[in-house]
Design a protein that fits this description.
By secondary structure, this protein is α/β, with parallel strands linked by helices. The chain is built from 13 helices and 15 strands. The longest helix is centred in the middle third of the chain and has 40 residues. The C terminus is likely disordered.
């Protein structure tokens, strides 16, 4: 899958921009704050209906804009099939348009576009707390199985209702809490099973990557650690639970009973997937404590690369890969690993950098573009023909 044309209207600092991309992608340079990341964020949002920078939708819209638009013409090169996709953002929500018509079918929409991102915030997955690692896993599951989004919403609703009952126990019958505990556990068990299956797929992909790129690169692996298994010391005891949904249900109910008094005192649910963690290992050791800064960056990229390959295997087309402001943070060896991976597959790649680096750009035959800010708005131009005139790729060069 590739993006042939991208149109942004009132998105962040893009007033109205249309740009055509080459099949291999683009190396986008420009000063900090000019709008490079905003461009990649728009692509990511179109594919994932979420930003990799903020959870506040209103931050994506230009100040005082009634609505913002992200449009793209995409091509599934495997079938040579073109589609027009668009997301319209308003203060009240978003609308999806497929070939000019509004659709509520998220699965159909996302079947035509996929994107993964490696950006400075990706490092927080390794160095930060469990919430970032849960988010990484859950976004990965959604990329492969969009129906996971509905399950996640059901889980969050059950969690919110259960917490409200725990905070106001005196105002509700005990049976109300029992009903929502059942709903919560049903959703929790399904969510944990999705996560575990996804991690198993990623580990298989990571093992394959280690062989392809060379054992000296180092192998990355993941281990899912659900909070409900925290009291089970032996790994075998934890692993045995995945094959038996009833056992997971029983373990959840045992935790609910064990933590009943603490939950009543705290007024919140103290067991379940919202408290889970995932260990990321590099060369067999926990990367957060033992890997160097460079190794942590490489491990984070390999997680993104493994997800990219899984998207292709499951959905039949390659996702767009977005590398935001990370090339300058990598040493020569790790840069080479990344571009060796990109060259080996038919990804469309978008790289942002504060400077154009022809040596790396040419490794993946990326088209050079430059972003700068003019009068408060982002402006995109071709590096070869950069001028004071805004570059509009809709007009063929030479005319």
């Amino acid at each position: 899958m590739l993006i042939e044309r991208l149109v942004l209207r009132q998105f962040r600092n893009y007033k109205e921009t249309s740009v055509v991309f080459a099949p291999n992608g683009a190396y986008i340079s420009g000063p900090n704050g000019s709008g490079k990341t905003n461009l990649l964020e728009a692509i990511y949002y179109l594919a994932n209906h979420a930003s990799f920078r903020t959870q506040r939708r209103e931050e994506l819209q230009t100040w005082n804009a009634a609505h913002s638009v992200i449009e793209a013409r995409v091509m599934r090169r495997e079938e040579q099939q073109q589609s027009e996709l668009a997301v319209q953002l308003t203060p009240n929500g978003r609308r999806l348009l497929f070939n000019g018509k509004e659709t509520k079918d998220v699965r159909r929409f996302t079947a035509h576009i996929a994107a993964v991102a490696f950006h400075p915030g990706t490092m927080n997955v390794i160095k930060g707390g469990p919430a970032g690692r849960r988010y990484l896993v859950d976004r990965g599951v959604y990329s492969l199985q969009p129906e996971f989004g509905q399950l996640s919403q059901q889980f969050q609703r059950a969690l919110k209702q259960r917490n409200a009952l725990l905070r106001n126990a005196a105002q509700h019958a005990p049976s109300d809490l029992g009903v929502w505990t059942d709903h919560f556990i049903d959703a929790a068990v399904q969510l944990m099973q999705y996560r575990q299956a996804h991690i198993e797929r990623l580990n298989a992909a990571l093992a394959g990557l280690s062989q392809e790129l060379g054992e000296d690169v180092g192998r990355v692996s993941l281990e899912y650690r659900p909070a409900i298994f925290a009291k089970l010391a032996a790994y075998e005891d934890r692993a045995a639970g995945w094959g038996d949904e009833i056992r997971l249900q029983v373990q959840c109910r045992a935790e609910a009973q064990r933590l009943q008094r603490a939950e009543e005192a705290m007024g919140q649910t103290m067991f379940g997937p919202q408290r889970d963690d995932c260990v990321i290992r590099f060369r067999g050791r926990e990367s957060r404590g033992y890997a160097s800064q460079g190794e942590q960056r490489l491990a984070a990229f390999l997680l993104v690369a493994a997800l990219s390959l899984e998207i292709y295997r499951r959905r039949g087309h390659y996702p767009v890969i977005l590398l935001d402001d990370v090339i300058s943070e990598l040493d020569e060896r790790h840069r080479r690993v990344i571009f060796d991976f990109l060259k080996a597959y038919h990804f469309q790649v978008f790289v942002t950098d504060v400077e154009d680096r022809p040596r790396y750009r040419e490794l993946s035959a990326l088209t050079p573009l430059r972003v700068r800010e003019i009068g408060g708005w982002a402006d995109i131009s071709s590096v070869e023909t950069a001028s004071d005139v805004s570059y509009d790729p809709r007009t063929p060069r030479g005319e």
